[in-house]
Amino acid sequence: MAIATIDPTTGKTLRSFNAHSAEELEARLKLAEETFRAYRHTALADRRRWLARAAELLESEAEHFGRLMTQEMGKPFEAAKAESQKCASACRYYVEHGEAYLRDESIDVGGDRSFVRYQPLGAVLAIMPWNFPFWQVVRFAAPALMAGNVGLLKHAHNVPQCALALEDLFLRAGFPKGAFQTLLIETGDIARVIEDPRVKAVTLTGSEGAGRAVGGQAGRALKKVVLELGGSDPFIVMPSAKLELAVETAVKARLINNGQSCIAAKRFIVHEAIYPEFERRFVERMRRVVVGDPMEAKTEVGPLATEGIRQGLHAQVEKSVAQGTRLLVGGKLSSGQGFYYPPTVLADAAPGSPAACEELFGPVAVLSRARDVEHAITLANDSPYGLGASVWTHDEAEARRFIDGIETGMVFVNAMVASDPRLPFGGVKHSGHGRELALHGIREFLNAKTVRITSGTTAPPTQASVSE
């Protein structure tokens, strides 16, 4: 597949890039290993300073980075700028908290001195998607670099300029050459990189199929892997919810990033007592969504990232309707240039249809009715995925039951699901395993080394003196 920038608003190829040759790839792997040997011993104060500088660049150059994102995958420009600024917040989070997360952890075993020392693993390969071309990368890179690991980025084929801009960003921030490198390689070369002994761990954000392939390759190579895969997140609304706020948030949660987000709400499960009114309001709001040029401030939904994604989504909608699912609005391919797809609402998904069983990666919502709390939980869990869930209720007993009963990695009550540097991010079931962000994210790619020192022996130097 070509490594190229294809403008989603026109379908025209703007820039193409040659994949790295075998010699170029070898040079980058060698540099990563050599850099890690020295970088792992750099002072934490230096890492903090470089990461803080990266945050400054992400904020000051948000317009430039935002244009790259919009140009390569169609994200509305305002959202693209906000993505760059959010990346800055992740960098600052680890500037503030990283040192504490890496500190030795004392354990009382009675008499002897014991502790856990957290040490970096080495080069971590990050296989990242196009939908959040900066955020997906930075939420891996910020904790990894703070921890003393080095990063190798294999980005999606359609966002090469974003990938190269990220490598340049960390270099300009002060990180040593080789601490973060972009690999312009084909999908077929990924297995070779995973198998390379200089690569110590792998993180992937992508589809379930990609997760199975990469997870299997990492498993055969006996390497740690974190997988953040697909999602078909439920958005549950109960009678005690503030309906107007729930509807407005539901539309936003479905259409974020043009509907192309793993944690976008996709299945809307509404209590039967309020279902008719919710459907009326939701459909009307989706009908009024402004679809257009992502560079225009008024645009709410821009094009999908590729023509293949658009055609695949439309096929899922058509098949679902043919099998008996109700189409309430949208569902027709737009004419003219660009990879646009209209905001679409389906209801009462036919059993076995794509709307009932598959992730719909675009601006398509599926509505269903629930009789009560237990029925809503059953419907929410009737999915192979388990990433996030949004629950709308002001009944505390209901909220507790949803928190305990829904099989996901995240549950948000009276709020849409969103990633936040302060909160661990990840899922269960076919949505993957492992966590990003917060304390959990920085420790995914560390060796938790147990140390026990029997009384009377000479104590080793402290972690602080080693890092300095």
TrEMBL record:
Top-rank taxon: Bacteria
SUPFAM superfamilies: ALDH-like
Pfam family, one: Aldedh
InterPro entries linked to this entry: Ald_DH/histidinol_DH, Ald_DH_C, Ald_DH_CS_CYS, Ald_DH_N, Aldehyde_DH_dom, ALDH_GabD1-like, GABD/Sad-like
Protein name: NAD-dependent succinate-semialdehyde dehydrogenase
Domain annotation Aldehyde dehydrogenase: ranges: 3-451
Upper taxonomic lineage: Bacteria, Pseudomonadati, Myxococcota, Myxococcia, Myxococcales
Gene3D superfamilies, per the entry: Aldehyde Dehydrogenase, Chain A, domain 1, Aldehyde Dehydrogenase, Chain A, domain 2
Annotated keywords: NADP, Oxidoreductase
